[in-house]
């Protein structure tokens, strides 16, 4: 199994064998789930990777019970598959299914941008623009992995500005399912420059409070069409 120790370091917090611990009394199963989810999203745990129940239990210094519960939570979010005696395996998604998921995600992200164009405060718009400026700085360094992470912050800021918690949660859940594959697309030539240009169109529409234009710009940014679809299939292969 891939090493997850670098994903946040949450296993250093005090815990107990009953699965309680951490700020606010969060269950250990939730904390293990969050760490594994981050490792899956980052690609540290690749699709098809087996999650070793005993290894994870040892890493956190607990029994297998909260680890099994964490696996169940990940399976409920379609991030892993539970295969009986084979244990838990990071979910692999076919190219066809991924394209369908990107289409749905594009609609959800577009709706977030539409609502943000109507509801975002001046402070929220300023934060979105500040993250975009940070993206431009990172792009100049050529650090693709950091660019991907800051790009996630950009989209999270749009979710927040939509002022619709349920929509934001559903969009985030789907995004997490395809995160490892989205990261591959970021590594394609010209993807970074396209991202900056497309984000600029989203911001301009939001600044103008043009909800329809914001929705269209974000939907086109996220969806896989034309050359972007070909780039994705090349990265996927």
From TrEMBL:
Q: Which UniProt keywords apply?
A: DNA-binding, Transcription, Transcription regulation
CDD domains, per database record: WHTH_GntR (cd07377)
Q: Which GO terms describe its molecular function?
A: DNA binding; DNA-binding transcription factor activity
Q: Which SMART domains does the entry link to?
A: FCD, HTH_GNTR
Please provide an example of a Pfam family that matches this protein in its UniProt record. Answer: FCD
Residues of the HTH gntR-type domain: 26-93
InterPro entries linked to this entry:
GntR_C, TF_FadR/GntR_C, Tscrpt_reg_HTH_GntR, WH-like_DNA-bd_sf, WH_DNA-bd_sf
Question: Quick one: where's region Disordered?
Answer: 1-27
Under PANTHER family, the record lists:
TRANSCRIPTIONAL REGULATOR, GNTR FAMILY, TRANSCRIPTIONAL REGULATORY PROTEIN
Instruction: From the Swiss-Prot or TrEMBL record, give the protein name.
Output: GntR family transcriptional regulator
